[in-house]
Amino acid sequence: MAATKPDGASPAMAQWFALKAEHPDALLFFRMGDFFEMFFDDAQAAASALDIALTHRGEHAGASIPMCGVPVSTSDIYLARLIRRGFRVAIAEQMEAASARTGKGPLKRDVVRLITPGTLTEDSLLDATRPNLLLALATARPTAIAGPAAATLGAAWLDVSTGLFETAELSPAGLPALLGRLDPAEILAADEVPLADWSPRRAPALAPTQPGVARHRLAEAFGAASLDAFGTFTDAEASAAALALDYVRLTQAGRMPRLSRPVPVGQSAEMAMDAATRASLELLRARDGTTALTLLASVTRTLSAPGARLLAAWVAAPLLDPAAIAARQDGWTWLIAEPALLAELRQAIRGAPDMARALGRISLGRGAPRDLAAIRAGLHAAAACAALLDGPCPPILAGIRTAMLATQAPAPPGTAETTRAVPAAQAAPGLPQLLARALADPMPARLDDSGVIAPGYDGELDAERALRDDSRRVVSSLQLDYAQRFGIASLKIRHHAQLGYVIEAPSAAVEALRAHPELTLRQGMANGARFTLAELSDLDRRITEAAGRAEARERAVFATLVSATLAQSDAIAAAAAALATLDALQSCARLAEGGDWCRPEVTETDAFCITAGRHPVVQGAIAGAAAFVPNDCDLSPERRVLLLTGPNMAGKSTYLRQNALIAILAQAGLPAPAASARIGVVDRLFSRVGAADELARGRSTFMVEMIETAAILHQAGPRSLVIVDEIGRGTATLDGLAIAWAVLEALHSQVRCRTVFATHFHELARLTETLPRLRPHMMRVREWRGDVVFLHEVAEGAAGRSWGVHVARLAGVPAAVVRRAGTLLAALERGRAPVIADLPLFASVAEEAPADPVRARLAATEPDKMSAREALALLYELKAALE
């Protein structure tokens, strides 16, 4: 807008201009009484995004000031909508009460928080079942000796709501895979770091920190003398971690949430999957953005939000260490063998509060009474689960039990914040019991509502409450006394916001009350009047003071409980993580207890043998309507390339994906939908099934397919698993066949990875003569009285045809078109010369045909390089040649 300069602004608007200048890229929620108001361009943007009225408030520089506002009490609803639309919001609060202000001028206001997608803490703004990650990326500049190829990226990601904080170093080529795994809500990165599809999540850049300074600031933030106390970090990792902390400190107006010590996790401990693979397999989110028909949805049986988040993390990042995988498997296998115990554990876990996120809000000073109540209930659930796990059990469950018991044990002397991490066993004695005695039940939503601290916990608070409540009983007694003294039975004593306690009398009694000189008429009403007297004024003062003292004492007690809780934040976080792990393990047990999901055997070998495997999502989707047909998959070293042919609609894509999904579940430590599975560790997984256009980037389906194929050939290795469908489609038949042939040879002989290669080029089955580890398979089809029956079974051998005409009929293509296609297909299969000659695609190059100047001219033309005038001239030239 034109009027955006502060010159000549009113005092309040001058304040707005100053705060807006500090956060120019954010909408400014400017607190004015009970509303957050927005002005100028902010108001126009917010009114459009929120679909609320745009009005005007006063003038500036001779023009009306556009304004819109939302109530403070319901601001979370509007904030959620703005955050989802990609806005950042600065919250400017009133820093003094109107009643306490001295002098003239506007109330003091300041920005207390910058709300961004990656720094949310409120449950109303978060998805309870997904982490909310802020990712920071820092570039390590290559040295002259190392050369440009040595450039690396440092990555650090944290979750403000739960305290998660991890780092890694990776090559630029590995960034898409990291982004696909983390799916961060917000990304801090320099402009030269390409983010591709994640570019809309890029936050305004902050100045990077030098590695030495970054290390010092990180150590200082966690009370350590050196960053080495937390592990080994590269310079790039340290810079990225410091960048993330700086941004969090900026958005929280200097306050820092409770964060775990940074953990360098590296990239070598997890199965690598790029974004295209994750999208193809629909692990956590379907292509349409929903979450219902995904791998995670099909295997989740969790009972709590933290358990759901942890299980999602397991699925998103399968492990490479067979021992770590077996540890998870031991946990849920043992639980299946103890059905009675498992049922009791589920009852204890069910509905357990989200302690991690409650602790995050408390650490930022935004904790509500119900956050403390959530920690109380969570610790109670942890204690109950620990008691149930008393006895011999697998190591993973024993570790869970230890973490859960930590909040019950006394803290040993000498615990200090300078240690790398406070062990879970160092919680203060009786914290759960302390919260159980101190907090009321049920718990009010706000501290202002009073009744947060239970009666009997604090004697001083009980005394102030008694005085306050006794005074209120005095009011009731006094009302009866006044009614008798003044002879008016309908007289009432009420509290008025401005007048304090007053006597209210109906119109018929007003004149009688005027006759009493001790009464003062303060206000007339349509149906009566209000009177005061000295005794009531004194009572009002005493009650107000008692209520104020009770409120102040309750706040002080609450603050003490918050401090006691934060002092044990690491132990509480450990107990919360243990509950989440137990929930994830019981979810696995629940999934496998029916008997049709197996415990996969994961080894360091090259094995890959699945018996009666199923696609978990498809099986769940058709449950009750049809039976899923299971299939085997054997990619043993001597037969590591499976060539799959057969018609569309027969189940090729399902078969391809199900084997990739079983590998992911197996290495995530989850049960697998198969009779048995023996899988050698897959270090990288590539799935190219169902490629689509990227029209916004000017890429056709074929171009996307070729880019993804190139990525496979460059990055896959002998321990990889490659799942590809219809390489070579989208171009001429001979071109496609040649490309598919060459790619298949490369995967077999050069990359030497385990591969399932689906194709419609049946000619490739003949390559078994030159590719010894290639095994042709087909989707079985049966023809019955002119109809095609898809059996959805995989068998060894090569399909003889694709049944495309039959599929067209099933799809509803008009009968006349289907009949014509059948006639043409029959003619082509018989090799009838007149028909083939009419189809240039099948014209033999060896045939000698008379020279065709039109064809020759067209062949020499490059349409993409022609102007409109040149194209029109060519059209006239060709028309003349034909004539």
Description:
The protein is an alpha/beta fold and 883 residues long. The protein contains 28 helices and 26 strands. Strands 12-22-23-24-20-25-26 form a seven-stranded mixed β-sheet, with helices on both faces. Strand 1 (27-32) and strand 2 (35-39) form a beta hairpin. Helix 11 (339-349) crosses helix 19. Mean pLDDT is 86; it is low at 143-149, 411-429 and 833-849.
Low-confidence stretches: 143-149, 411-429, 833-849
Form type = globular
Structural class: alpha/beta
Helix content: 40-55%
Percent of sequence in beta strands: 15-25%
Task: Characterize this entry briefly.
The protein is an alpha/beta fold and 883 residues long. The chain is built from 28 helices and 26 strands. The longest helix is centred in the middle third of the chain and has 34 residues, at 534-567.
Based on the model shown, name its key terms.
883 residues, 26 strands, seven-stranded mixed beta sheet, single chain, alpha/beta
Write the layout of secondary structure elements.
Elements: H1 11-22, E1 27-32, E2 35-39, H2 40-50, E3 55-60, E4 63-71, H3 75-84, E5 89-94, E6 109-115, E7 134-140, E8 152-158, E9 165-170, H4 175-182, E10 186-188, H5 211-221, H6 235-251, E11 263-264, E12 272-273, H7 275-281, H8 295-299, H9 305-316, H10 322-336, H11 339-349, H12 355-363, H13 369-388, H14 395-405, H15 431-438, H16 459-486, E13 492-496, E14 500-506, H17 507-514, E15 520-525, E16 528-532, H18 534-567, H19 569-592, E17 601-603, E18 608-613, H20 616-622, E19 631-634, E20 641-645, H21 652-668, E21 676-680, E22 684-688, H22 701-715, E23 721-725, H23 733-751, E24 754-758, E25 774-784, E26 787-796, H24 804-810, H25 815-830, H26 833-837, H27 853-859, H28 868-882
Parallel strand pairs: 1-5, 7-10, 9-11, 12-22, 17-21, 20-24, 20-25, 22-23, 23-24
Antiparallel strand pairs: 1-2, 2-4, 3-4, 5-6, 7-8, 8-9, 13-14, 14-16, 15-16, 18-19, 18-21, 25-26
Helix pairs in contact: 5-6, 9-19, 10-19, 11-13, 11-19, 12-13, 13-14, 13-15, 13-19, 14-19, 16-18, 24-25
